[in-house]
Amino acid sequence: MIRLVPSILALAAGCWSAAAAADTLVDNIQGVTIDEDGRIDNFTGLVIGDDGRIREVLDRRDKRPRDIDFQVDGDGRFVIPGMIDSHLHVMGLGFAALTLDLSDTNSLEEAQARIADYAAANPGRRWIIGRGWNQVKWGLDRFPTAAELDAAVADRPVWLERVDGHAGWANSEAMRLAGVGAATADPAGGRIDRVAGTREPAGVFVDAATELVASKVPVPRPGDRDLALRKAQDILLRMGVTAVADMGTTIDDWQSYRRAGDGGWLKVRIMAYASGTNAMELIGGPAPSPWLYRDKLRLNGVKIYLDGALGSRGAWLKQPYADDPGNTGLPLLTGSQLRNLMSRAALDRFQVAVHAIGDAANAEVLAAVEELSDTYAGDRRWRIEHAQIVDPADIAKFGEHGIVASMQPVHQTSDRLMAEARLDSARLEGAYAWRSIADAGATLVFGSDAPVESPDPFAGLAAAFTRRDADGQPFAGWHPEEAVSRERALSAFTSDGAFAGFAEGRFGRLVEGEWADFVMIDRDPLLATPDELRAARVLETWVGGERYYSAAEARESAETRAQAR
Amino acid sequence: MIRLVPSILALAAGCWSAAAAADTLVDNIQGVTIDEDGRIDNFTGLVIGDDGRIREVLDRRDKRPRDIDFQVDGDGRFVIPGMIDSHLHVMGLGFAALTLDLSDTNSLEEAQARIADYAAANPGRRWIIGRGWNQVKWGLDRFPTAAELDAAVADRPVWLERVDGHAGWANSEAMRLAGVGAATADPAGGRIDRVAGTREPAGVFVDAATELVASKVPVPRPGDRDLALRKAQDILLRMGVTAVADMGTTIDDWQSYRRAGDGGWLKVRIMAYASGTNAMELIGGPAPSPWLYRDKLRLNGVKIYLDGALGSRGAWLKQPYADDPGNTGLPLLTGSQLRNLMSRAALDRFQVAVHAIGDAANAEVLAAVEELSDTYAGDRRWRIEHAQIVDPADIAKFGEHGIVASMQPVHQTSDRLMAEARLDSARLEGAYAWRSIADAGATLVFGSDAPVESPDPFAGLAAAFTRRDADGQPFAGWHPEEAVSRERALSAFTSDGAFAGFAEGRFGRLVEGEWADFVMIDRDPLLATPDELRAARVLETWVGGERYYSAAEARESAETRAQAR
């Protein structure tokens, strides 16, 4: 039985009262961490200092210290470092949990019914906002239309983001309020889906064109933002994620993170990458921020979008899409613009993270890093986010200039059928090429791109070493030569993730001196079958020596509430 | 001789290391503070705890504690609470110190020469930026012109703010870049000065019209902002100011304040009032911020401008200006807009501070407070900033609803001749009416409106109880019945200033439990003659138990630097 640890450290206004802290021994565990050489280290006990850092890592033979204030009996449970998601959207995840989520709809009809129900259940909401639809998942070979959305809700504006965030679906009322019509031109870097044979907007807007409607949606109130942040943190901690790289932090997002830190409710560590260089300058000022709230928050650098997404055919390819001749996707920046933005960031030592999905985009950012590395020398850790479709001839370049490849295993399993439709077999050789990119010498880190996918890191781990989805498909794995080992996958979700964010030595490893960020699960992550791993239950999640999530407590609370009704 | 106190508390990342702190006894001083009844309390020693708060206040007969780590011999010097400036512009003060300052020019010709010299000395600056000009001080009965500015600098754009911040002077190149010409209409709430008999812009832009040119000026880099903040703090601490109300904080300003707090170099306490409700929402979110960095920073509420300034005839009057028939000034908001903004703030418990200079503006905000007080009950401390020209019939209303009148004594002494030109004698009865407004029951607090005036609080104190300027004019005081007592003046610059910012109990009084914010000066503030008081030398300035300014050390540093050359 796990003796409960009293909730300790009251974090008031960023200053931590030493008097209330205590040394804690978490014993009788089967612990795993990755050492600096990428090898597994095992241990059976952790001593957490009164400052929330690991004081000692104990193996079976080590004497247990006596000056302990609290003891937790791990009951033989498995302990891994807190999982680090190196690419997600914190506020997007939170808002998705608070708004209409269509990601589990399997047909257009099902989505229409869900939307209509949601609208009926929320009569006071002026706009119906939601996300997560995916026409590929619906078996639709085209985008849905405004008319189809009107069939669900016609009396109020409706605006629904596609699952990848790169397209939006509006009803007629929303388009009317946005003032878009046949005369509206496609904006640079975007496309308005139009009724065949006409210029009439059909309902869906791709990439930069989404702004035409999105700009009319009422912005969330600050209280809503804070609620979304609380939601996001609950979801992440429940899934065993203790640190994230937030890809596209706005000043509004940052203010919520700071309120959380000031108020003592920032639990998950957030490595923030600002939404463009203006936000980077506003948030960080003359340089990246210091680590704040005891390494819970830092503005590391900037997130730059070079192209769109594969599903919406916005990813920038060297050759046209296999299923859309003549269309090579949408570069969102010229080569000069890209280099200017990267330079602006690097000039003040902000870290650069560039979204590049198509092979043309990846080639472009690799070339830009090559060119800028003379001027901006030193330990830059240029990040390429997604690196999803790479020309096999370009893979070797990932090993240069200390590049970090930030990839999302569950994208491969979710997208494989779509990818096979978009690309011919030669190009699939460089698709989701985790192994090759890592072997080329890049630092490989993993994430989920939540809320585009669920932030469940165990699904990511299982996909990473099997190249099979939750249904076990395809049986031999999809391009199984690109699978990585379990150890590398775990490393990419822990210590390498910390390194990618300049956080090595602070968290990511269960070693003396680092923060006590760990997850207690109910099975061996290195021996469980893929299915068993996908079904792993997170029992406890600790960050900085504080237990922020306990499945047992969550269950008890739910039971108490049920009884109270 | 004053034994030096070692610099103690290392404020790292907002968290304060207890091990380095120490108890300090500041003894052998002639201390003064104002108690809760507005009366003088004297003391001869202060014990500062290791947390930076006052542990004990000692009078002559009290035993001195023994458990003291450091002792300062005050040598009979006078000690007052740190002065609180209840209305200034922190970043404006800082930038003014870094850019061209024309506030001490006495003629147009002198200003032109100064501008030309500055431009020649700064060949790399694309725009010549400055502030502080005052055509009244130049003896000019009109605004200066673009042509006169071209005579100083014609090859680069020049943009110079009038001393009160309510007008700007552009040269032809600046107007060209701004695209303003004869076809440009006066924007709402603003006025373009035009060449007589034509529509051609003459060079000066008043109130909202300043945006036409100001919007083209390159924004400061974040590093420049931080430098301006450092400068502002140095100036304030040197003058004995330990806390301020920042009137019009932007998100960029707030970010600099936070960087200072995070980095341990926020020395002066800043009670921030956001620049409008959008900034208020962005900075504070769903509510005023908590007190941050040990009561050094808080987003209290919002600053709203209802009218302009008297000098530029933007102040909103009930009857026309005596020297400009037909012109009653410029209300910047309709009554509905004002009430909407005030409601928006009060809804989320943000404090409201409304700039009202003219008697019509004051009447309007008094009426708005009256109407909103039913809906927004409780301890609101509605602030009226300046309250400069008040219809005597309206003065009694200042005593209702807990209104705070935030006024600037040095405005009266600087502006009296201009005020006499703008207004007839009946209206002068209610001008800078500190005594009447306080007697009506308002909480009276004082400030400087720096950089419009110098933030020197001793000039403010001297003006407050004499109604005479630095030259002793007019001899009997200007409308001397409106002078306040020395005690009230000191209170308005200390404890009442804290109350006005919801900081009572934290700072503003030298009593047990409050922060050790105090100033050591070389003369008795309650007995010195006005001239002696104006010449008071600040010897040391302490905030939160840290000595941030020492005249002796400053002198030694300057001598060392001089010897090094």
From TrEMBL, chains A, B:
InterPro entries attached to this UniProt entry: Amidohydro_3, Metal-dep_hydrolase_composite, Metal_Hydrolase, YtcJ-like
Superkingdom of origin: Bacteria
CDD domains: YtcJ_like
UniProt-recorded name of the protein: Amidohydrolase
Molecular functions per Gene Ontology: hydrolase activity, acting on carbon-nitrogen (but not peptide) bonds
Domain Amidohydrolase: 72-548
Lineage of producing organism: Bacteria, Pseudomonadati, Pseudomonadota, Alphaproteobacteria, Sphingomonadales
Keyword NADP set for record: no
Signal sequence annotation: 1-21
Species assigned in the record: Pelagerythrobacter rhizovicinus
PROSITE patterns hit by this protein: PROKAR_LIPOPROTEIN
Record PANTHER family: AMIDOHYDROLASE 3 DOMAIN-CONTAINING PROTEIN (PTHR22642:SF20), IMIDAZOLONEPROPIONASE (PTHR22642)
Entry keyword annotation includes Hydrolase: yes
Pfam families in UniProt: Amidohydro_3
